[in-house]
Fold this sequence. Notes:
149 residues, alpha/beta, Ribose 5-phosphate Isomerase B, Chain: A, five-stranded parallel sheet, globular, binds D-ribose
Amino acid sequence: xxxxxxxxxxxxxxxxxxxxxxxxxxxxxxxxxxxxxxxxxxxxxxxxxxxxxxxxxxxxxxxxxxxxxxxxxxxxxxxxxxxxxxxxxxxxxxxxxxxxxxxxxxxxxxxxxxxxxxxxxxxxxxxxxxxxxxxxxxxxxxxxxxxxx
Length: 149
Ligand code: RB5
């Protein structure tokens, strides 16, 4: 059986309970989860957390990253500043599948103030189960990596 991909996981203070639920769920499914916090009750800026998880993915230490804040938006913006990161915020399973299939996303952002635990776990599963389709999408993804002026 192939080894389950290692997943970087983090949040800011607005999303700690949901992050812990995701960590427990993924661990129970056999994923190696690198949860870099923060601990309950600790206030932590989302840019620092998003960047740290993104660097773990960009370096190859983790295959995917799952990051959370209140909306998912701020931490996604921070993660996408790291070269090689393609992160989308998802509040539905269709988007979670599509950012893997068409955009080869390597990180998923969630908003803990938007999605409940049940939906969040389904979004995470949709993201991890989907495969990049390559083909015509590969050239477009390569264009994302081309620095703009
Ligand atoms: C924290 O209150 C909130 O601003 C943060 O979690 C996030 O939603 C930012 O994008």
